[in-house]
Every structure is written in C-alpha cells, then in structure tokens.
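Appendix B, Record 12. Input sequence as logged:
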Amino acid sequence: MIDLKKLDRELLNVEKPARYVGSELNIVVKNKEDVNIRFAFAFPDVYEVAMSHTGMHILYHLMNSMENIWCERVFAPWTDMEQVMRKNKIPLYGLESKDELEKFDFIGFTLQYEMSYSNILNMLDLGNIPLKSKDRTNDMPLVIAGGPCAYNPEPLYEIIDLFTIGEAEELLPELLKLYEEEKKNGYDKLSFLEKAAQLDGVYVPQFYEEIYNEDGTIKERKILNKNAKETIVKRIIKDLDKSFYPEKSILPYIDVVHDRVVLEIFRGCTRGCRFCQAGMIYRPVRERKADTLVKQAENLLNSTGHDEISLTSLSSGDYSCLPDLTLKLLEKYENQNVSISLPSLRLDSITFDIIERIQEVRKSGLTFAPEAGTQRMRDVINKNLTEEQILGPVETAFSLGWSTVKLYFMIGLPGETMEDVLGIKHLAYKVKDKFFQRPKEEIKGNLKINASAACFVPKPFTPFQWVAQNSIEEFYDKAKFLQREIKDKKVSLSYHEPKLSYLEAVFARGDRRLSKVLLKAFEKGCRFDGWYEMFDFDKWMEVFKETNTDSDFFATRQRELTEVLPWDFIDTGVDKEYLASEYKKSLENITTPDCRQQCFNCGVNHKLIGGACPHVQTNKQVQ
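Logged structural output:
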C-alpha cells in the first residue's frame, strides 16, 4: 500500500506535481467494494499529452458509466518522478485511488505512437508487473492494448496479453462482461484468453507462431490454439449518433496540449492519400448529426467552463453539415466569447465565410498541408491538390487579414527527386508572393511563413506499405539542401529528426523479432524516445547490434507485393489488392478521385457495412 503522506512530500521534489495528484474536476471515484472490475487506462506518455487524447476521455467515461467497473488513469511519469519513485520504492499507481497497478484487473494501453513502446515497459516495471505475458500469472493484471499502432501488434507480441483491433466502444464492454463471467466461475488466464479470442476484433498473440524464410521474410503464420481465428477483423461503430460520448470531460490542473472541448464530427476519410494510415484504417466515413454535436457541446461546455470548441476529424472541411453546425454553435455561444477551431482543413475544402466568422472571436494563424512541393509528387501521393487550389485559398486568406501561415510538407516520399524537394521552396515562395502582390494599402500584418518538413515513414495498411524508406543520410541531404536554398527571411523551415523517423519506420513495419530489441532497449534505459531531448539513437543502434537485428531490413528495404507482411492477418476492410492497385497507380503518377464522389471498391462497403458505403453521393461504381 502506498504511503500517501510520503508521496505528497516527495511530489514537492518534481517539476510538475499536478501530473501525479489526480483529484481534478469531473474524475470518477467509486467505492472499491461496489465494483467487480478495476481497469487502469494507461497512456504511455506524460500527463499533458495523455489528457489531450479524446479517445481516453471517451473510454474512461464509457467504462465508468458501467455500474460494476471502475476505470482509472495511469500515465508515464517524467524522468524526475521516475527517479523519486524508484528511490523511495513508490510503485506506479492509478490517479483516482492511488492504488498500485498490481491491484487492477486490467492495464489497458493505448498505442498512438511507436516511439512510446519503451514507456510501456517502463510503466509495467514501475508497477511491479512482469514485462512478458508468459510470466504474468492468474493473480496479476491482464495487459491489453489497442489504438492505431495495434494494427501491427507484432513488435509487442511477448508483452501484451491481448490486443483489441478497431474501435473499442462496443468491444471493450463485451470483453469486460466476459471477464466478469469468468471471474465468477473461477478465473483462469488461459481459459479467459481462449474465450476472448473468439470475440470479433480480439487478437491473442500467444496463440500464433511466425515461421520465417531463409531471407528473413515471413513464410507463414501457424495457429497454435483451436480457439484462435485465422483473420482478425477490425471492429467499427456503424452509427456514431447512437455511440457513447461523454457529457463531462476531466478538467486538468495544468496546461495540456489541447485544453478545449473536443467534438468528434466524423470518423474516417474518403480522400485516399496514399501515405496516410488513418485514412485507410478508419474507413468508412461515418458522420454525427449536427444536432447531436450541438447537444454534446452544451454538455461539455457546462461541465468544464472551456472557452473553445474544436471540431475534429481527419478532414473537417469534408463534414457535410459544417455550415449548419458552425452557424448553430456561433449563434449559441458567440456572445459568451467561446471560439471554434477547425483543425485538419484541406485547402480545397476551405469555406472562408465559415473560417472568417468563427475566427472573429479569436483570430489565429492558418495551417495548410500541401504535403509535396511539385504537382508530380502530389499526384504520386494522391493528394489531389493543384497549385491553383493551394494558392487561391492562400490569396483569399491574405485578403481577409491573415498574415501567419504554416505549411506542412514531407520529404522522402516514394520516387522523390531533388527537383521535388526544391519544389517545397518554390511553393513557399509563391505563397509569399501572393502576400505582397497586392496594393500596399491592402497589405496588413507582418508576413510569417513557417514551413515544416516531416520525414516520410511508410505505414501498414497504406498503398506505400511496401516501399523502402529513405536512408537517414538521404533525409539529411534533402533537409539541409532545402535549408540552404531557402534564403528569404519571411520563410522559415524546420524538419523532423531523420534518426527518429528511421526508428519509427523500424517498429511501424516490424515483426516479432523486434520484441527482444525492445526489451533490451528498456534494460539500457531507453525512455520517452519520441521526445528529442530523451532520444538516444546510439543506444538503439547498440541494441540492434547486440540482438543481431538488421534494422534496415524493416525500414529501408523494398518489399515485393507478394510478400507476407507481419500484419496481413488483420482485416481492416480495405482489400490488400486495392492497396496494391493504388501503389501501382502511384508509380505512374495516376490519381484516384475522392470516393465520396465515386466508389472504387476498396472493400469496406461489402465487408463492414453490408452494402454501399454511406458516404458515396452517387451510384457510380468502378468495377
């Protein structure tokens, strides 16, 4: 049992004690005697990042709405807190009860970013939980995981007992109900996992084995338990208006990354960008009705006192009811000085009368994501944006008074040349020219163009899942070349750390052989690898050498279209043949239109919906 007085004293020795005290407004505290299942929602990053995650708030309140379940939060302690905990033998604990992790039935990790995997091991270790599934007995918590990175669960196969694939709002209650029944009848871990493996969307890695070819590729997967399914089909929520959404949101004591009311206006995306994993794994598009969202906004504003509403999705400008929704929210809250933000807007979907109206309350910079500097590269990645569609909205924005613009690009895209890289400079300069090519009396503000270049990371379940990532040296050459070329003081360029993107690519497309790498890296002290100040690339390279692992095999190797991929046993609804056809199109610079206009038979419609996709506006279908 944790000595709370001692904990309080020691918290005075850390930078941000509020990360570790709990007791915020709108948390849920239950009587331990009244619940049958205790669930620790584990986010493998710091409090400020975790508390900004909408999925955490949804699942936290969903589970706590169930009478027999108490869900608490547990986040990765920063290095100063870890030092205090290890020195004073304070185990990792749930924020609501301050009980150590050992007292929970489930520890459920959300996998948002591959570079947080070392934190998973550190959190288990701080909670005195054995790192490997095989070492955890019946009286220890089950360690489960879900989220976007769970679509390639294999690098964590030795650590996680059970993965949930897809959207969890319906799957988690089913899983917890099964656990409760097993607990009543005398819980046995193996028996529970066998029954859980029969649920749609559940993957139990210990029930499978990978067999490798001599060249290191996968020969086949063997099923080791009769209860295991050959294919794991992702779970989706078909009707978001009927799905759970919290009426309250926990109000943090300290500033977090996104401190506002978040309304999820729809899931999925129809644009078909070939680099984008989210656009493929979250298909099909499902929208919430405007009236549903207005009611959710009212509940959340009343329970938090926030002064900003964020309308979130993968491409918010594509929401069919956007004008209606924003008008209703503005009419209701404009006089209360509540602002509305629209992240994830595409340049060709911007409606400036909406943008201008919502930013009357609080004006900010505009963010655009051309992704590539040349038309050829935008066609390769299926961005479906012309230069006119980029510069037109920019010109309109400048005429309406905006003077700060962020431009997001990627370098290292498949087939990219130095001419394409230089196109980033040319496009940024054309944006600058649009600002100054106006009468002097119309020019307002001090122009700032902030361009950033991310290093492309190929991801599973995308048309680029087969391509080789650029080498670290190639990334540096391109980024530094671009920095040298951009000489205008109005345009600044930043780029993502290539070494970090390389390691992300290793784990994004890795297989079971990376489990030993991860365990060894944890032993060597790797933590918070996604944080630049904590990332130690040389340490990771030592680990690859010591474990006799060829990291280039996973990152910079081109795959054959016929290769068995580590995640092939998961069915997202999007056919592998469709992804391959999109990849082949990219080689010929051929684009595919937005599938809101025409169905291209990706597979989602007949597999997961049972008919035509709900977002297709016409009856056209490509055979």
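The CA atoms of residues 371 and 409 lie 4 Å apart.
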